[in-house]
Predict the structure.
Amino acid sequence: MSELSANTETMTAYMARFRDGGILNRIGGQDVPGSLGTFDNASPVDESHICTVARGGAEDMDKAARAAAAAFPAWRDLPAAERKKILIRIAEGIEARAEEIAFCESWDTGQALRFMSKAAIRGAENFRYFADQVTSARDGKQLRSPTLMNLTTRVPIGPVGVITPWNTPFMLSTWKIAPALAAGCTVVHKPAELSPVSARILMEIAEEAGLPPGVWNLVNGFGEEAGKALCEHPDIKALAFVGESSTGSLIQKQGAGTLKRVHLELGGKNPVVVFDDADLDRALDAVIFMIYSINGERCTSSSRLLVQDTIREEFEARLVERVNNIKVGHPLDPETVIGPMIGEEHFAKVTSYFDIAQEDGATIAAGGTRVGDRGYFLRPTLFTGAHNRMRIAQEEIFGPVLTSIPFSTEEEALEIANDTAYGLTGYLWTSDLTRALRFTDKLEAGMIWVNSENVRHLPTPFGGVKASGIGRDGGEWSFDFYMEQKHVGLALGDHKIPRLGV
Ligand code: NAD
């Protein structure tokens, strides 16, 4: 039996219970059907039915938010060491079911198994990292003044809403939920309607790890129904959102009536700038990895290549050769790099840029075609002969599609890099350290890597500027979001108090 057939059998076995029983919402530790019925979940690989999913709306969100509010005081007041133990057990549970998570995620999203195996393990790392922070999360400062001993402490903000997208949904859910639980918040999670399977597995792992009922509630459904109701619920104190920039703006509007704190991780059109003094072999590897891995359905992908004109021709030629070698195929085939796009609508959007590129005068140097007539497969694509005002240089395509733009001077590269509505990540390749410092100082992005692809270090801040988001995740920054700062001033003696009306 080929490895693909064996993997398909394994995936089918893992998915059988979802096919038979569907996915229900989980509220206060109970399975609850959706108040609006169900919706169908299909695989992007062959458009086959995976399972039915509970379609939640305002009624379900109300139940979930109330359950989260009821569970909050006990979770907040649980000794930190106890919360830490539960988070570590969740990490262990993820590791124990990593294969199941990877197979289900791959079939549900179309992402290649080779990347999803790593994503499952990254999810466990998120829980382990924040478990280690639990005992210090409430620590504060001592700020002595002449008359007062001023203390600060942090307290969890309350029940929070977490809304996640369909790209690497398992990893992104852990990234948001782990720090929220570590801070002492309770959670209502609304996963993306296109990829609901791994959120259900994660929820089960959390309950098996001993998480009390109501601390984490899962409500499936569509954005404009379940998602909107979550944003508007008065018991929810903050919203952690990952998704498109236009949805982020809606989240803010919907949360405004109840004065929600929002954290938005949104889209990107990230530049990778390659100067002619760079290590071009390493730059080439990184450029390819950062747009053609994870189907290019990645917020931090380097979708604009800014390449110095002195090396452009050779660099693009080498790029074309490598891009044409990238294997598109069944995501459960261990050799596959690029699987199908998540669904019909997204596939139509990504492939529409093949015409847009040509209409705007760019060249399709590699790819630019669909693969097969079932599922949503396309060839990794490279546009050359582009300039930065073209739509392929300005709009987030969110697929394995790279736009190459030449530049001649450092000033021009910086101008092009910043000439976008977004500002999530930037990547810079040069051997000139002073230039790197100058450039990173002026580059409008929340995260920049020099001579490196995106390598996530969990204590560092993650987030974007401009249309790419508001707020930061990671280390202390996560706790700043999920917690309130509190100040307490204690008199050091009998300082003079103004006496009125004496
Ligand atoms: P999306 O905005 O369409 O959906 C994201 C989530 O929001 C889904 O769960 C959806 O149901 C929900 N939603 C939609 N409308 C809503 C509403 N009115 N109220 C409440 N919730 C609503 O995004 P997507 O297509 O699922 O994901 C892809 C996008 O996510 C890309 O733009 C990508 O760049 C971005 N992303 C950003 C980061 C980051 O860290 N900056 C990470 C991953 C993905």
Remarks:
- DSSP finds 16 helices and 24 strands in the chain.
- The domain at 271-450 is CATH 3.40.309.10 (Aldehyde Dehydrogenase; Chain A, domain 2).
- The pocket of nicotinamide-adenine-dinucleotide is lined by residues 163-167, 172, 190, 192-193, 222-224, 227-228, 231, 242-244, 247, 250-251, 254, 265-268, 299, 396, 398, 424, 464, 468-469 (CB under 6 Å).
- Residues 331 and 407 are 36 Å apart (CA to CA).
